[in-house]
Amino acid sequence: MKIRALPLPLALLLALGLGGCVSERVVLLPEPDGRPTALVVRSGSEEQVLQQPYAAAQRRGGSLAATTMSAAEVQERFGATLAQLPPRPVRFTLYFLEGSSELTPESREQFQALRQALSSRPVAEILIVGHTDTVGELRANDALSLERAEAMRTALQAEGVDLGTVEVAGRGEREPLVKTADEVPEPRNRRVVINVR
Q1: FRET pair for 7, CA 20 to 30 Å: which of 50, 102, 129, 184?
Q2: How many CA within 13 A on the CB side of residue 26?
């Protein structure tokens, strides 16, 4: 069976072993945030498109058939396997006061949610990328964006979070969230994006 998920990122699916070989069943699980996903399962010249949570494709007697499973059935049959999956990646975006590496009051609250998410992961891979708006010189914005990323790493360490593997980077004003002309102060561009997996 060939499996292809649409659109990317890949939908979470189960293709589990039975009796030492790969099962003939594939189940599309729901995305935690409710985003729609789809999955194409091919076997020879046959094809099934799974478009709803818990839709399944199963090979029966040489044919590929569409089936469904309930959430309870998936949990009963595959719960032990699902419990072994790593936590899903999460992303946090925190914003800064103009020209500084100090978080906005709203982002200070979001920082606590980030800290809690990290404390629930035994070993995390973290990528912290700092950004700026277009106010100031390019070289200064490069330095400020890296300073923001480093400030978040330092703040997490100060909170006692086991950071696992951490990479920091600064992108300056090169990847604005909101495109602006040069020298325009845009609060949504003064940010760090923290990807945790």
Answers
A1: 129
A2: 26
